């Protein structure tokens, strides 16, 4: 299989997990390459995600590393092959690579938790709300670039409506519901959309009211994507410079705790809908 100079996040993650298995087995990359019958340079490219491997080769590596976690091995085998040719590829020369990596991550994730304070999660935004938010970035984007990002954000929402929709729990602070992006009409439409989305079987919206006080990670949004096994979970953080993806065990443990504590601060799904309806009525 050909090498890639620009591996996707998914390809990099497969390489990272294979490297973790090798290190757990106490083998150097040279020793692992010898067991597999390949050159050490090839092994380095595999672990960097730059060389696509087959499911059989992943299983052979897992056997060489004495990995007995069959669920993990099966999950890693399912990640093999080249670059996923998803709909997001049409944006490859238009948007930053991190945006495409997020779309691919969402496409493959088993379930998601999103925690946000100032913004309604992108997967639950209306077109007009998304346009208002994206138009306000610094430095400002040209109108065509705004529209590319808006269409990309809306297309990402397909994971919530496909035949086997992704389960999503969105933890949203009351501040996000009152920000007023785009003006009263856009805000009312966004709240109506959020209420309707919360009534879908695969979507849960939990609102943290102002009265709940302080809570962890109140200054940033957190996207926790659950993989087919816990070892393959991924956290995505929004920063001023783009997406940051975390997958170290300590990081996953921390953000699982953060999300759980934020859920503990939130109202029930029913009470959350009641609050959203009340805020919508208050908008003038």
Give the gist of this structure.
The protein has 284 residues and is α/β, with parallel strands linked by helices.
3D architecture notes:
This protein has helices at 9-24, 29-36, 40-47, 55-64, 70-77, 97-108, 127-134, 143-156, 174-178, 184-198, 249-265, 269-282; strands at residues 111-116, 168-173, 203-208, 222-226, 234-239, 242-246. Helix 4 packs antiparallel against helix 5, helix 7 (127-134) crosses helix 8 and helix 10 runs antiparallel to helix 12. It contains 12 helices and 6 strands. The protein has 2 domains: 9-77, 434 Repressor (Amino-terminal Domain); 87-282, Endonuclease, Chain A, CATH 3.30.870. A hairpin with a 2-residue loop joins strand 5 (234-239) and strand 6. By secondary structure, the protein is an alpha/beta fold. The protein starts with 8 loop residues before the first helix and ends with a helix. The relative contact order is 0.12.
State Rg. Answer: 21 Å
Q: What portion of the residues fall into strands of 2 or more residues?
A: 5-15%
Give the distance, in angstroms, between the N- and C-terminal Cα atoms. Answer: 60 Å
CATH class of the largest domain: Alpha Beta
> What string, H for helix and E for strand, traces the elements in order?
HHHHHHEHHEHHEEEEHH
Question: What is the CATH topology assignment of the largest domain?
Answer: Endonuclease, Chain A
Order of the strands making up the biggest sheet:
3-2-1-4-5-6
Nearest-integer average pLDDT: 93
CATH architecture annotation of the largest domain: 2-Layer Sandwich
């Amino acid at each position: 299989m050909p090498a890639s100079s620009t591996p996707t996040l998914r390809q990099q993650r497969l390489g990272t997990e294979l490297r973790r298995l090798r290190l757990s087995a106490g083998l150097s990359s040279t020793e692992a390459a010898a067991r597999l019958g390949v050159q050490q340079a090839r092994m380095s490219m595999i672990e960097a995600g730059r060389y696509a491997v087959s499911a059989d080769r992943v299983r052979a590596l897992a056997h060489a590393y004495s990995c007995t976690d069959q669920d993990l091995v099966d999950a890693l085998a399912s990640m093999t092959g080249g670059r996923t040719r998803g709909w997001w590829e049409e944006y490859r020369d238009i948007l930053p690579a991190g945006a495409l990596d997020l779309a691919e991550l969402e496409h493959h994730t088993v379930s998601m938790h999103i925690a946000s304070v100032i913004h309604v999660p992108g997967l639950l935004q209306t077109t007009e709300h998304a346009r208002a938010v994206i138009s306000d970035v610094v430095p400002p984007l040209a109108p065509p670039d705004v529209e590319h990002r808006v269409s990309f954000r809306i297309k990402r929402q397909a994971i919530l409506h496909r035949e086997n929709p992704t389960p999503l729990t969105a933890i949203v602070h009351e501040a996000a519901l009152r920000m007023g992006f785009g003006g009263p009409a856009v805000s009312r439409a966004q709240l109506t959309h959020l209420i309707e989305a919360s009534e879908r079987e695969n979507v849960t919206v939990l609102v943290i009211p102002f009265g709940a006080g302080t809570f962890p990670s109140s200054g940033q949004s957190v996207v926790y994507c659950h993989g087919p096994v816990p070892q393959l979970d991924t956290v995505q953080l929004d920063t001023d410079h783009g997406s940051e993806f975390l997958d170290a065990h300590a990081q996953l443990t921390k953000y699982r705790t953060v999300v759980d504590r934020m859920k503990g601060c939130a109202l029930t799904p029913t009470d959350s809908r009641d609050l959203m309806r009340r805020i919508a009525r208050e908008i003038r």
